[in-house]
């Protein structure tokens, strides 16, 4: 019996590698997002976004003379540097990916970049890492992101707070690169426009009890509580505990807290709370939503359009360079993302590939109005969100 | 009036949450301590057993909710709780039959049991995620508050509100009932006595005709009931998410050890010590002092002894101090 099992397993393995080998003209792109961990509820729509772009290109058969693009998923755990590094090594070493979409959270993204991507010369485009620290990190020109830096989000949040007549805030953040960076940005920007920050306190994710944190925040007081955390984790715990004790009634919700599960989990008490998340209005997102629907996911989900765009940028850069090797196409990423050239929207990837093949120039717009600035990060347009009747409603674009 | 406000503020942010959290930890620590006392190993799978019990209860709660059965102001989960306990008993007895019994027959060392329980933990971890998924699940229904902060303010005219959630009241009441029942069982019944005998001296118990496999079976069944109740109460009060149950393991073990491993009374005391040390030492006293002090002496800072970042450090400092001076814990447990 044991031998039979062994033999079966061995055969299955062989079959697997034969199967993989048969796709000779295949380009693999890694997708590394946190399928488990603090933002696990966002990850499926992000991965689906990136995969949609790949299947669109594969179906068109226009990339580098008909190459197929295959996604390879791996988990980052969002906050698990060890897991991320191991998985990234596996994707590059064993799977032979040609580009890496990810990571998702800022901490692990930095870890993958420093430990795996740079030594291997692998190009990364993160759809959702927003820490200001990643703007200045040493990256050998290999790191890009389709999401804006949190420094920009801090200014946007300060603007929203001022417009709503809020004078003082209590601020709590999730204790990691993302939370700390964002909290600093919000604090600086809000103070710059004359607001008061009564307390800046961190919270740990995944803890059993947040009454201590809420006690301190309530003691400090403030018009609203700004929670720079994750909607599946400590952020949710803090909001629930604050509502239960009656400490705060309105909450400021930065990007990591925007998602459909938060109003669903908190309930009606969240109505009137507001925030912002990276996202653009206009044609791009509508077109993406239209093609995402048959594919079975909601492209308005946080960072889902950014993921689609990250995958698209990889494939356009490869086409422009005429090569799928990271060292060859890395220089082309900024070119295809920015003007000049024909504007390319979601669902028009085949058209973009044709123009590039003919030696033309494109300006990829995509689902999130991609415009890469500075060290290769999105310039940043934001959606202002307000929770109305238990749903995240877009108030306007900033 | 200001004095009353100060008292209410402390109750609302320190006492009420502390007591509820302490009860949850105490119930968890009781299970850990029972396994340590009778089966003689630290069960790392405890947090995930809690998650499993809560999960089964949640599934039954959903079933009842879809059938329209409810308990009025009380959460439906209470009705589903017995089924959750039965499910967890089945799981624990199965694990014992498949895994632990083998090592018991080998007379394996406790440290081997600990590592084995670590493996069991990962399997349960996966099992729960496989069945119900890694995300947050809401299953609390019924009346949310016994008294909400807003009602309290309207009722008393005070500036501070006092909120007591139904789940917090329920947690404390259930914890008290469970603890009384457990002590009665251990001290008064024949099975309970045989468990204590087995815990004190295995060989002697064997000689006096106690069937060890029976004792082990009863222990697992009691532990299943304790973990499920603790898991469900915690899930009702906060929210159900497999990952947080895994994280609960640390404060639960701290509680059991501070109180004295193997001593049920210690587990309860330990639960409250850990819960209150987390909440009180990092509390910012500004709000309270503003009420109590004369206007010109009101503090401008937060008057916080330690930032909340250190709340875990606090409970572990207490743990270390206790172990330094009383290696067997506050109440006389077994030395680690």
Features:
heterodimer, A: 398 residues, alpha/beta, Rossmann fold, 2 domains, 7-stranded mixed beta sheet, 5-stranded parallel beta sheet, 15 helices, 16 strands, 45% helix, globular, B: 336 residues, mainly alpha, ABC transporter involved in vitamin B12 uptake, BtuC, two-stranded antiparallel sheet, 1% strand
Describe this structure as you would to a colleague:
The complex is a heterodimer of chains A (398) and B (336). Chain A is of the alpha/beta class and 398 residues long. Chain A has 2 domains: 26-148 and 282-372, Response regulator (Rossmann fold); 150-277, Rossmann fold (3-Layer(aba) Sandwich), CATH 3.40.50.2300. Helices cover 45% and strands 20% of the residues of chain A. Chain A contains 15 helices and 16 strands. Chain A has helices spanning 2-21, 43-60, 81-95, 106-120, 133-136, 150-163, 177-192, 211-220, 234-245, 261-266, 283-295, 304-321, 326-329, 333-337, 349-357; strands at residues 26-33, 68-75, 99-102, 124-126, 143-145, 168-174, 196-203, 224-228, 251-253, 274-278, 342-344, 362-364, 372-373, 377-378, 382-388, 391-397. In chain A, the strands form 4 sheets. In chain A, strands 7-6-8-9-10-15-16 form a 7-stranded mixed sheet, sandwiched between helices. In chain A, a hairpin with a 2-residue loop joins strand 15 and strand 16 (391-397). The radius of gyration of chain A is 22 Å and the shape is globular. Residues 16-23 of chain A have low confidence and may be disordered. Chain B has 336 residues and is mainly α. Chain B has one domain: ABC transporter involved in vitamin B12 uptake, BtuC (Orthogonal Bundle). Chain B contains 13 helices and 2 strands; from the N terminus they run ααααβαβαααααααα. A two-stranded antiparallel ribbon of chain B has the order 1-2. Chain B is globular.
């Amino acid at each position: 019996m044991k031998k039979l099992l062994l033999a079966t397993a061995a055969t299955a393995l062989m079959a697997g590698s034969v199967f993989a080998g048969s796709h000779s003209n295949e380009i693999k792109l890694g997708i590394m997002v946190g399928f488990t961990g603090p933002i696990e509820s966002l990850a499926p729509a992000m991965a689906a976004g990136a995969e949609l772009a790949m299947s669109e290109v594969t179906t068109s058969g226009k990339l580098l003379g008909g190459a197929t693009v295959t996604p390879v998923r791996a988990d980052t755990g969002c906050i698990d540097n060890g897991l991320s590094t191991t998985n990234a090594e596996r994707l590059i070493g064993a799977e032979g990916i040609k580009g890496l979409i990810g990571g998702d959270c800022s901490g692990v993204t930095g870890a993958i970049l420093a430990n795996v991507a740079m030594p291997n010369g692998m190009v990364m485009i993160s759809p959702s890492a927003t820490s200001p620290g990643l703007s200045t990190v040493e990256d050998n020109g290999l790191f890009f992101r389709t999401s804006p830096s949190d420094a920009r989000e801090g200014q946007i949040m300060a603007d929203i707070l001022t417009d709503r007549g809020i004078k003082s805030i209590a601020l709590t953040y999730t204790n990691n690169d993302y939370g700390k960076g964002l909290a600093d940005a919000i604090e600086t920007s809000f103070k710059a426009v004359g607001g008061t920050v009564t307390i800046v306190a961190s919270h740990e994710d995944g803890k059993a009890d947040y009454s201590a944190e809420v006690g301190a925040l309530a003691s400090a007081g403030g018009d609203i509580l700004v929670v720079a955390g994750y909607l599946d984790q400590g952020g949710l715990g803090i909001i629930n505990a604050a509502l239960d004790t009656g400490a705060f009634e309105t909450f400021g919700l930065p990007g990591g807290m925007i998602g459909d599960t938060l109003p669903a989990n908190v309930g009606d008490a969240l109505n009137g709370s507001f925030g912002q998340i990276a996202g653009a209005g206009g044609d791009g997102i509508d077109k993406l939503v239209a093609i995402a629907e048959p594919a079975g996911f909601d492209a308005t989900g946080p960072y889902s359009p950014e993921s689609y765009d990250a995958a698209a940028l990889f494939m356009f850069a490869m086409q422009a360079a005429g090569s799928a090797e990271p060292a060859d196409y890395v220089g082309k990423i900024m070119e295809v993302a920015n003007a000049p050239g024909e504007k390319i929207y979601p669902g028009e990837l085949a058209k973009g590939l044709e123009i590039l093949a003919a030696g033309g120039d494109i300006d990829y717009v995509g689902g999130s109005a991609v415009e890469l600035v500075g060290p290769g990060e999105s310039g940043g347009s934001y959606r202002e969100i307000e929770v109305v009747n238990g749903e995240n409603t877009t108030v306007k674009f900033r | 009036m200001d004095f009353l406000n100060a008292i209410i503020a402390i109750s609302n942010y320190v006492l009420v949450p502390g007591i509820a959290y302490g009860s949850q930890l105490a119930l968890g620590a009781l299970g850990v301590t029972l396994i340590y006392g009778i089966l003689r190993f630290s069960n790392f799978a405890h947090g995930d057993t809690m998650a499993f019990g809560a999960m089964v209860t949640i599934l039954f709660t959903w079933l009842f909710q879809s059938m329209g059965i409810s308990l009025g102001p009380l959460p439906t989960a209470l009705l589903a709780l017995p089924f959750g306990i039965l499910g967890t008993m089945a799981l624990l007895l199965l694990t014992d039959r498949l895994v632990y019994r083998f090592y018991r027959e080998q007379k394996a060392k406790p440290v081997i049991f600990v590592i084995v329980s670590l493996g069991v933990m990962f399997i349960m971890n996966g099992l729960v995620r496989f069945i119900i998924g890694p995300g947050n699940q809401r299953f609390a229904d019924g009346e949310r508050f016994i008294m909400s902060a807003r009602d309290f303010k309207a009722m008393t005219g005070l500036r501070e509100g006092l909120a007591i959630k139904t789940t917090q009241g329920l947690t404390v009441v259930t914890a008290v009932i469970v603890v009384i029942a457990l002590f009665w069982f251990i001290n008064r019944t024949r099975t309970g006595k045989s468990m204590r005998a087995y815990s004190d001296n295995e060989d002697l118990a064997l000689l006096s005709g106690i069937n060890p496999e029976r004792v082990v079976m009863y222990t697992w069944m009691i532990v299943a009931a304790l973990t499920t109740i603790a898991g469900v109460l915690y899930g009702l009060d906060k929210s159900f998410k497999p990952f947080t149950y895994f994280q609960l393991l640390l404060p639960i073990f701290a509680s059991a050890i501070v109180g004295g491993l193997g001593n049920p009374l210690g587990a309860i005391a330990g639960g409250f010590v850990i819960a209150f040390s987390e909440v009180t030492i990092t509390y910012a006293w500004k709000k309270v002092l503003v009420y109590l002090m004369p206007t010109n002496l009101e503090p401008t800072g937060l008057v916080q002894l330690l930032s909340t970042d250190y709340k875990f450090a606090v409970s572990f400092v207490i743990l270390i101090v206790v172990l330094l001076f009383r290696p067997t814990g506050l109440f006389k447990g077994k030395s680690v």
